[in-house]
Fold:
Amino acid sequence: MVQSNSLLAPHPDELLGSLLARRAWAAAHNPASFVKSMDLTRDVWSRDIDRSVNATFLEKFAEGLCIGRAQLDAMTVNSFLAQCGVPVQAIGFEPWITYVGLVQWARKRYGQMYCCRCLGAPDRYLRRDWRIATNWFCPEHSLLLQDCCPECRKPFTPYSNDELVLARCGRCAASLCGRESLSVSGCDLELHGHLERIWNDAFAGKPGPLCALYRHLSEVTARDPRFARAGEHWSYWRTWERAELLRSQEGRIMRLACHPSRGALVWCGYNRARDVREKPKRSTSMPTDPQVRAQLLLDLARKVRWPRRSRARVSQ
Ligand SMILES: [Zn+2]
Ligand SMILES: [Zn+2]
Structure:
């Protein structure tokens, strides 16, 4: 049981790791020793607890932070996505969340966004919206969201080296709120309004438009020559790349958000996990007929993908 909770209450849209980091700072602990006092190991921080948290952790957090389990569970992105009708799982790929590429305490990917002015506030914390793939600016300040240090370009790693509570880069010590981002245009604000309506519909029990939007974006990025060579699913893209994608699809997004019968849209855009036991086994032997073999090799060559750009989205 942690003795000093310092009465820091969670914000309504705060992520679980953010509250833990703030409580740890207020109790003069580092994040690793703070969870240790809850009878947990520092391995907690090498998992994406902002995405989902298992039952054991949840119980210990609830006891240590003196907050109800349901309230803590609601502070994960998966809990929000599940309420919006999105199929979620603890690990592996899932729609709409951005990826941080956790390797021990380091984050290799740029999926954790932040607003430089929100981080400049004295009671700074991580918003849930900073892990959702349709967000690229802060609606409160109308500034573009950042996903790396403005000086050394390292991905934002909020729980390592007290980056969140100090609003400083853990590698070069540059202030994360010292350099102002670009403002967004009126078109961006309008587009964000449409996306917000789609999310609100999903949260209110009408997930059809959100699902249709997901399917549409996935098809566009696979077929449109502007995006087809991106090499990775668009959830892995940098913030500015996703913003470009959404801007290019403004017409479709507006129609989905404003269609009078949008509540009746069919919910069929997410890929379901297939039962591998029912899948027929593929033959791995080559056919003996040279013509058939040549045709097979040609078919395989056609399936070869363009060079991937994924390395550009991973911190070295
Ligand atoms: Zn902001
Ligand atoms: Zn830096």
Observations:
- Residues 115, 117-118, 138, 140-141 surround zinc ion (ligand 1) (CB under 6 Å).
- The beta strands are 102-103, 106-107, 137-138, 143-144.
- The chain has twelve helices and four strands.
- The chain has two domains: 16-166, 186-264.
